[in-house]
Amino acid sequence: MTERHEKPSDDRSASTARRGVIIAVACAAFAVGMVGAAFASVPLYRMFCQVTGYGGTTQRAEVASGGVSEKSVTIRFDANVAAGLPWSFSPNEREVRVQLGATHQTSYRVKNTTDRTLTGQALFNVTPEAAGVYFNKIDCFCFNSQTLKPGEEADMGVLFFIDPAMLQAEELKDAPAITLSYTFFPIDNPDPVAEAPVDGARAKKGRES
Question: Does the structure show a pLDDT above 80 at 161?
Answer without folding.
Answer: yes
